[in-house]
């Protein structure tokens, strides 16, 4: 299928042929007929993408600070590659989609019905149920494409809470501003529209508003005073896009005492206290389509809010806008300025440079039946030699996979067969860059006869089932940590691995780093038990992030601290005998999760150690430190860059220019075993031992 995407690094907008999304049990598949290009939001994305590095930095000063801190802790080279990778991720464009349901899942929508959603510009989109609404028969597809933008306008109006007869100013008469004008008029309000564009002012007047044409140097404050009969307007809705702070100042000046100002657009926000103090003005920023936005429980998992308590949600705002269209209370036909076929999307986006452009529609030809089955796209004509070993498929193509794992496997001599991702877009983008034969949304493509090795780099809850699928098909498996989230899943993988007689490797890369290999070499000269202190300043991740979800991500102990459980197991060279873990106690000042914990391990040879996994430290502090005490000697490793020895004959230090956590060496060792039929670089019993202990520790911390 065709989809519009943008590269944030160079700003190129393109139409790519990508695999269709797979049907799911929960979501609906929608075959697109029309989608709307947002002249506001999408213009900003395109302009950001086309900007140079300096301008990108100016636009995101907070990100610049993070980059500088990363340089201090990880080195310039690693930071440069990390930033490049972030900017190289393909970005799907669009969020105003109209089409027909082809697969309903558990959404409750009927196959064959017309619906609107916040889907991207793509021939087929997969959407959760709370982001879809039926289109009334009275509303045509082109008009329905404005629904999502109408919901943004609607939410801003709901925050203003207007009453019949109130005088309200709308600053900025783009698509959202003009929709705001119409909805306010339908609500019985008097409206004053302000803009620099005479054409948009004319449209606002056509919709019943009085206007202020700034191109004629008309004074908006004086106009608002006259409009409000000298009393001040009741409210101002700002739908403009500008860096100026003057817009908010003017809004405050226009308002009556206790007036309301709601920001829908993007403007300068250096507010003057004096503007707001004497009038006791209310200022509020509106969040997109309404309640539910950015709530994963609502948007992804489909948990609706109680109707009686939260009357208007994203979905219900969609429905309200469609009802207004059906009753002809709002008319969006005058807002359509251009129409393009999906193949000409790049030309459509060029029209965004024309500030007079309004509603730009993308039309999609009737989708053929065979399109619905197109879950795989051919990327290369190069044929894979099935007679050799080391033909690798990837399941998952996120930031870590694309930035670290795929390049590492390529350098290790892997021949890439299929790259499988849930959305398909990243599969095509990174598949083309790295020489994959196919891109797909179907894991079956990774399990074909061409492939002998599968790399799994998906969300943690999928690792076990996908690893078992690969083992059932006789493939070697490399799983980006963790191996699995439950004891049952770990046992199942172990059973299938024994039957398949193929390798299961987990990406415990740290044991392969040059510094750790040096530490291991030095410790082998010391037969007595060791003592370890390992500290990870993990950095804060919000409680609602998927990695913190016990069912999806498994939590950060299973998901990341497992690295240190494995590392200590490796350096001790002995089985784990016992463990104990405690997390930070309940506190009013710090959000307590299992990612602030002390973990103690003892080993059968008498060694012991502690893992300090703390998410409440400062980002400027180096992330990782390892200390080893043994036979009157000490080793200290700072963030995989500097290793110092104290009391070691013939060894004092080992420094690297840039951080090396062993990812490349880990993959090299694995691929060598695949090709030569050697032993697993990490013994299978250690992999399963560490996986079980990681789960046990996480469960202990949750009690």
Can you give the helix content as a percent range?
Answer: 25-40%
Largest sheet: 8 strands, mixed
Q: Supply the CATH class of the largest domain.
A: Alpha Beta
How many strand segments?
A: 31
Runs in which pLDDT lies below 50 for 5 or more consecutive residues are none
- Structural class of the helix and strand makeup? alpha/beta
Average pLDDT confidence is 91
How many structural domains?
4
The CATH architecture of the largest domain comes to 2-Layer Sandwich
Measure the end-to-end span.
Answer: 48 Å
* Oligomer kind: single chain
The dominant shape is globular
Q: What is the CATH homology-level superfamily of the largest domain?
A: Dihydrodipicolinate Reductase, domain 2
Number of contiguous helices:
22
The CATH topology of the largest domain: Dihydrodipicolinate Reductase, domain 2
- Please list the strands of the largest sheet in the order they lie side by side: 25-26-27-24-28-29-30-31
Radius of gyration: 29 Å
Strand content: 15-25%
Quick structural summary:
The protein is of the alpha/beta class and 703 residues long. 33% of the residues lie in helices and 24% in strands.
Report what the structure shows.
There is one protein chain. With 703 residues, the protein is an alpha/beta fold. The protein has 4 domains: 2-144 and 332-365, Medium-chain alcohol dehydrogenases, catalytic domain (Quinone Oxidoreductase, Chain A, domain 1), CATH 3.90.180.10; 149-285, Rossmann fold (3-Layer(aba) Sandwich), CATH 3.40.50; 375-508, NAD(P)-binding Rossmann-like Domain (Rossmann fold, 3-Layer(aba) Sandwich), CATH 3.40.50.720; 510-702, Dihydrodipicolinate Reductase, domain 2. It is 33% helix and 24% strand. It has 22 helices and 31 strands. The strands form 5 sheets. It has an 8-stranded mixed sheet, covered by helices on one side. Strands 3, 5, 6, 7, 8, 15 and 16 form a 7-stranded mixed sheet that branches. Strand 21, helix 17 (463-472) and strand 22 form a beta-alpha-beta unit. Helix 15 crosses helix 21 (663-676) and helix 20 packs across helix 22. It starts with a strand and ends with a helix. The mean pLDDT is 91.
